[in-house]
Design a protein that fits this description.
Strand order of the largest sheet: 1-2-3-4-5
Strand content: 5-15%
Helix content: 25-40%
Radius of gyration: 19 Å
Structural class: alpha/beta
Number of strands: 5
Order of helices and strands: HEHEEHHEHEH
Largest sheet: 5 strands, parallel
Length: 241
Amino acid sequence: MKAWKRISIALADVPAHRLSFLLLNEPEFKFPKPSNSLRKNWESLAISAIQEIRDITPDRVIIYEGIDLSNWTRRNKSGGYKTNNVSDIIRPLPFENIIYSGHPSAPDEFTNQAVYTGYKPGKPFSEKFAKIVIKDAKKFINWGKRHNVPLLVGEFGCIGFTDGKNEGPQNPEDCGNYASVIYSAYVENNVGVTWWSLENSRTIYKRPASDVCPKIKQCPTWVPRNPQLDPNLMKAFRLWN
């Protein structure tokens, strides 16, 4: 709370339409497991921090995420949701100008394909995976409509194509096909999306087989050599024709 007060003071002269605050990225509050009491603990802290911010900049937009990494898409071994209701991890707060952000990871079987993740590489983006994305999106969007609050997908992405044997899906265009379904499921329903590029294997650049990482969790270079934007992602997000 003290940190947010200092940040708010330091940035008070930046207009609200130019700068928003993300209160905390991926709150955990999940040990030994997510619960109503842990969610309420986080809500109490968040409310106090928001009050500090709003005392200084009343019109500042704040992005708020729920417990358990704000991920309502986790599945158990039988394929059912670990979080039956989005409200189990995130609920509306008593403030205006709050954007509610979620971090969907499913289908992990597709998005996390690599020998070091435990998910077998080489799978194409299939109709099965598309249905999972669409189902998860509807669950989140329906929650937003029910509470009449704006939504954001704060992080999502997939391991980019390399060789499809040690890392990556079957084809170079598979991540683009995944992103295209994300666009249709969320953006076309007025939900903003943010591609997660904070890991070498998930950048917005093309990843050739020479950059494969069969033994380590992150590639030796942050950005691929001679980086080129992935045309499949650019087209999926309607950034290129």
